[in-house]
Amino acid sequence: MAPLEEGIVAALLDGLLEGVLAVAPDGRIGLVNGAMAQLLGARQDDLLGRRPVDLEAAGTWLPPVLRRCLETRERQALIQERAGRRLALTAEPLPEGWVLATARDITELDRLQRQVERMAQDRERYHHELAGLRAGQVGRTKVIGSSPAMQRVMDLVRRVAPVDSTILLLGESGVGKGVLAAEIHRLSPRRSRPFVRIDCAALPASLLESELFGYSPGSFTGARREGKPGLIEQAHGGTLFIDEIGDVPLELQVKLLHVIQERRIIRLGAVTPTTVDIRIIAATHRDLESMVAEGRFRADLYYRLNVVPIRIPPLRERPEDIPVLARAFLDKFCARYGVERTLTPEAMARLMAHIWPGNVRELENLVERLVVTLDEREIRPEHLPLPSPGGSPVQVREVVPLKEAVAALELELVGEAYRRFGSSVKVGRALGIHQTTAARKIREWKARTGQP
After folding, report:
1. Which residue among 82, 107, 233, 444 is buried most deeply as judged by most CB within 10 Å?
2. Model-level pTM?
3. What counts of helices (H) and strands (E) characterise the chain?
4. 107-138, pLDDT tens digit by residue?
5. How far apart are the first and last CA of the chain?
6. Taking a C-beta distance cutoff of 8 angstroms, is the pair 212, 231 a contact?
7. What is the DSSP string of 4-47?
8. Strand partners, 89
9. Quick one: DSSP state of residue 80?
10. Percent of the chain at pLDDT above 90?
11. DSSP 244-292
12. Closest by alpha carbon to 152, among 133, 125, 179, 124?
């Protein structure tokens, strides 16, 4: 090649952002541009005429694909991180024994690709949010909450509502599991079909089976002559909400498992199964994992239910929702009873300082009580039947022998912990006692109070 042509080629190569290096047939570097020299941390003149193996022995970094291509005479490609940059490296054999290596900085390209992926994810999220807003035009949602914790819950609800996956709602009593189940149904394609709820804790075990599965004519004494469809059948085409699933007896759990697996039921006294098309949402305040470990809940049923678990945080974990909820309940009950009430800032601060063991249900009941019992228009702190912030959690109402007081307080604590956590494991952890001790005291509390 003439000197002029060589100069033009060198100028063109140096103008490239891509690093270029060529090894001649004699095994020495015969061409290298400025971008590659800068990447290798050396001057072009110090690289030309050198053998790659000698440079590497001297500590100079070379694209690893170059050595492999020189050894195999096959094209090589690699993505590698170096000095905080992301490089696309290639090396391929050329005619007449030359080997060409290139290095392209794709850091910016990679950043742009990740940005495009994030934009696609945002687009999908906005799509779900828009779907939720559009669905909201059909009927106003009753799920109230602006805290990050509740927004995460609602984001998940909007993602799973359009599909038929089984959902398990978890949370303490009063957090609004029933409201959320109804909201999932409202946002689903089944919204125009039945939403059937059964509270397993409110029915004795002897009635629960017939309520769920129904019965055929003459199945038992007192049964209707024409028979009766169960709640599962009544939910055909829609959603079945099984509230307090942790209270279902073990012998009935296996039947529920078959319903979930096969979508078929058999009425009491019948032999022919009936196919049902239902979406199942279950809820509980109990710790089902602990119940499985204790043998009080079937493991196979738990795993069938736990497809999409959604935990609703208690009100004490999202105090920023208290003002929103309180004002919504205030508007609701003022409109219902035809009165005007307002909450002073001091009263609102008092509400936010309370821990709300009864969660949203307790707050709603308190607001209704204040609306209907107060004569004043303003609700002030002294109107709130709440303990003073920072006060003692133990309230002394009368003087009794200390031994009796300690025993009564112990049982009250155990009962409150069991109502809140639902398992002896968590009760023991909360009260700082061993699980077996907690289980014994729970049994004693149930026997004293007549709890199931």
Report:
1. 233
2. 0.57
3. 19, 16
4. 888 888 878 767 765 665 555 445 444 444 43
5. 98
6. yes
7. HHHHHHHHHHHT-SSEEEEE-TTSSEEEE-HHHHHHHTS-HHHH
8. 78, 103
9. E
10. 33
11. TGGGS-HHHHHHHHHHHHH-EE--BT--S-EE---EEEEEESS-HHHHH
12. 125
Are 282 and 255 in contact by the 8 Å Cβ rule? The answer is no
Q: Which of 26-30, 259-263, 329-333, 386-390 has the lowest mean pLDDT?
A: 386-390
The two three-digit tokens of residue 59, written as one number: 């500590």
Handedness of CA 6, 8, 11, 13 (dihedral sign): negative
How far is the C-alpha of 99 from the C-alpha of 117, rounded, in Å? 36
Residue from 129, 153, 150 nearest 325 by CA: 150
Pick from 268, 249, 271, 252: nearest CA to 260: 252
Range 230-235 contact pairs with CB under 8 angstroms and sequence separation of 24 or more: 230/265, 230/267, 231/196, 231/198, 232/196, 232/259, 232/265, 232/276, 232/278, 233/265, 233/274, 233/276, 234/194, 234/196, 235/194, 235/195, 235/196, 235/276, 235/278
Tokens of 212: 């769920």
CA distance 288 to 170: 9
Q: What is the mean pLDDT of residues 175-196?
A: 93
Distance CA 191, CA 330 (A): 28
301-324 core/surface letters (b: 16 or more CB in 10 A; e: else): bbebbeebebebbbbeebeebbbe
| Cα–Cα nearest to 142, from 131, 157, 160, 163 | 157
Identify the CA nearest to 193 among candidates 151, 227, 159, 237.
237
What DSSP element (H or E) covers 167? strand 167-170
The pLDDT of residue 142 is 65
* CA–CA separation, 52 and 67 (whole Å): 8
Q: Tell me the C-alpha distance between 132 and 124, whole Å.
A: 12
Q: Running DSSP on this structure, what letter comes out for residue 365?
A: H
Per residue, the 3-state secondary structure of 94-122, as one string, reads CHHHCEEEEEEECHHHHHHHHHHHHHHHH
Q: What phi and psi, each to the nearest 5 degrees, are found at residue 241?
A: -105, 110
Between residues 218 and 328, which one has the greater pLDDT?
Answer: 328
Q: What are 70-76's contacts with CB under 8 Å, separation 24+?
A: 70/23, 70/27, 70/99
d(CA 99, CA 97): 7
* H or E segment to which residue 78 belongs: strand 76-82
Euclidean distance between CA atoms 386 and 354, whole angstroms: 7
